[in-house]
Amino acid sequence: MNAKLAQLHVEQASYLAVEHVRKAVDQAKRQAEQAAKEAEEKARLQAEAQRKAREAEKKRAEEAAKLASLKNSFVVVEERKSFWEAEKHCREKFGTSLVSVPNKQTNDAVEAVLQTKKNPQPHWIGLNRYGTRYWHWADGEDAMHVNWTYYQNWRYFRWYNTHRWRNCGQMRTTRFYNGTSRAQVSAYNCTAKNAFICRKPGNKPTDYSVADIILPQNQNAKEIPACKVLQRVSSTFRDAMNRCKSEKNCAGLTLHGYLLKRPQIKSTIYLLKSGPECKAKRKLPAHQANYITYIKDTYRTN
Questions:
Q1: Which residues make beta-bridge pairs with 90?
Q2: pTM (two decimals)
Q3: Is residue 252 within 8 Å of residue 227, measured between CB atoms?
């Protein structure tokens, strides 16, 4: 009996020892699996962080390259002129127009250049509404759908910018006591003398330019190319531009300024016929003061 009891105790002890070893092995296995999972997750997170860092660095490099390219796409002229004199200078010296600032990237590029100036005086840009109630750019780009939140004070000073004698846009950098600065765009009297920014040749966002010439002695009077009318169409602004672009004998188009504010609306637009008449100028009748004429860059005569 004692031998059987002893044998039972031995077998029980042996079982418990084996069970203890099994549990220890299972625990070690689970710990190893957990450690492997943690190491794998850590490696994945590190790889993800490195990938994001590379993408961020690539994006910064692309933005820096784009900013450098944009900064090289315009030239700052420190000579002080009225808006019309500045536009004429850009056309005669560079064959271009005052710079358009239709997005944050271009705004940042212009701001970066202006911040290098010791005297943060205002500079004319191509934004204007002379001869019409609707803002547009001198090179033919639509200014009605610009995200004006890029331009820090435009909305805040909207009451100031809507004054009927402030029809031209200027940009300046405002410096603060903490050493920071930011670009601000505001409307101003077109006859004021400012420095200005011209586009460099070969940096054109559209195939058209505004051809209206404001007569400085009368802000309500302007001249346009004396092109004959090729065709009168009912179309949207962009469709008419594309249609004229595809027709060789189309020199440009004339449209009412409100189409700049409502580009999806169809209305009467006059396609202009190319020819020697376009080299001459004609005064726009008073009842057509809100019309704007766009001319293909290949037919520009001013």
A1: none
A2: 0.58
A3: yes
